[in-house]
Model the fold of this input.
Amino acid sequence: MTIQLRQICLVARELEPVLEDLTEILGINRCYVDPGVGAFGLENTLLPIGVNFLEVVAPIEENTAGGRYLDRRNGDGGYMVITQQDSFETFQTIRQSALDNGVRVAHEAHRGDWRNCQLHPGDLKAAFFELECDQYNDFEGYWHPVGGLGWEDKVKQDVTIDWTAVELQGDDPIALAELWAGVAGLPLQRDGVVPFMEFNNASVRFVEASDGRGPGLGGLDIKVANRDHILETAEARGCYVADDQVDICGVRWYLRD
Done:
């Protein structure tokens, strides 16, 4: 049973300023716009980080789930942990595990060989946990949310290489970790006092919400090839925090060489 952290979704009040920060500071490219998110009252753009993806969504209508999330967390921030499973069996196992742990399905879709299931962020106490699988289950290639293929020439890794971890925060990190690990069917580990679980390509770390914004997706660890570019550009754009951290879209980006 293998789970790939294939996509992270951020939510913003305004799409374009965040996209400009991401492309300029992290040195990555835009690759795809999904018109299908309009059904949820949103607009979006996706950007590859290695063979994985960042998505930014922004409300274009009143009273959307994304808009309510922005209100609840007092601004832009992390929104969804989107994963790719290695098989339909793994997909079904996690979906059932969620139900067994009292986590509702917020939305699901089935088109041809592609299946999608979004697990409820309220029940998961931090963020959406999305499951996806298709006939390919290729962690380095075909990915339905970006139209399958055709994004490969947009990959740029001379500044930012990939992510290595996602940080979820809550009032009780241990309970949060136990819930997510129970749903994912993964063992919990500890780095000192910090609990985490391991996807195929990245860790999921659970920390106390200490920034005044409550539970949510608070941070990402990224492997970088040009720290100086990131820091200089972040400072120029008002996103610099420290020599190992920048803030983009209300998310802490921890820089790892």
Observations:
- The chain has a mean pLDDT of 96.
- DSSP finds six helices and 15 strands in the chain.
- The helical segments are 15-26, 65-72, 88-100, 121-124, 173-184, 227-236.
- The chain has two domains: 3-154, 160-256.
